[in-house]
Specification:
It is a single chain. With 200 residues, the chain is mostly helical. The chain has 2 domains: 93 residues, no CATH class; 92 residues, no CATH class. The chain contains 8 helices and 2 strands, in the order H-H-H-E-E-H-H-H-H-H. Strands 1-2 form a two-stranded antiparallel sheet. It is elongated, with a radius of gyration of 23 Å. The chain starts with a helix and ends with a helix. 15% of the residues are buried.
Length: 200
């Protein structure tokens, strides 16, 4: 393929990716674009390439299929969806149980990443409120200590809200830290603690 044709091909792929970026945050519109993308020539080419590379086998149960109609190509991540997918973004699976499991694992991974992102956002928000202009240096010089302080603050606040006894000499339970980092059940979705009372 000459450079001109290659540039046209890259432009087509980039065009799909831009469509996905344009509807980020709007689930319904994103699904519409995704449905259109799965019918596109760009996806057809990517899909077939993945199936050929997998040797026409499901990469989970290793079942061999003669032809590609019973195989599906699963997105492990949507980070580059829209023609920019790399090999590690995709997994060839047979329809049914294997694809269902692949979808479940992706959702679990996405939820875990989302929970950790929220935790990091809260940690930074807390640090800026407590340390103000010195937060960047505090985080750089003693991040472990800062996280420990944040965990204690969060645990004290949680105990207060749930009428649980709090002992500042006691270590913060590991289970609580896991709970905080994973944002399980949305318990800390709108987490705001009373910083002033904690530091009196």
């Amino acid at each position: 393929m000459d450079s001109w044709a290659n540039n046209i091909e890259l432009w087509k792929k980039g065009q799909w990716h831009r469509k996905f970026l344009a509807v980020q945050g709007d689930s319904d519109e994103w699904q519409k674009v995704y449905a259109q993308y799965l019918k596109s020539d760009v996806w057809t080419e990517i899909r077939l390439k993945a199936i050929v590379q997998a040797g026409y086998r499901c990469q989970r149960c290793n079942a061999l299929f003669f032809g590609e109609t019973k195989l599906q190509v699963h997105h492990k991540t949507y980070d580059r969806v829209g023609g920019l997918e790399i090999d590690n973004d995709l997994e060839v699976v047979c329809a049914g149980e294997c694809h269902r499991k692949a979808d479940e694992e992706r959702e679990e991974r996405v939820e875990e990443e989302r929970g950790y992102a929220i935790y990091e956002m809260r940690f930074d928000s807390w640090g800026k409120r407590v340390y103000e202009d010195e937060w960047v240096m505090k985080k750089y010089d003693d991040e472990i200590g800062a996280r420990d302080e944040f965990h204690r603050f969060a645990y004290k606040d949680w105990c207060k809200k749930n009428n649980e006894p709090y002992n500042k000499r006691r270590e913060v339970p590991e289970e609580f830290i896991d709970f905080l980092m994973q944002n399980r059940d949305g318990e800390y979705e709108e987490y705001h603690g009373d910083v002033d009372s904690w530091y009196q």
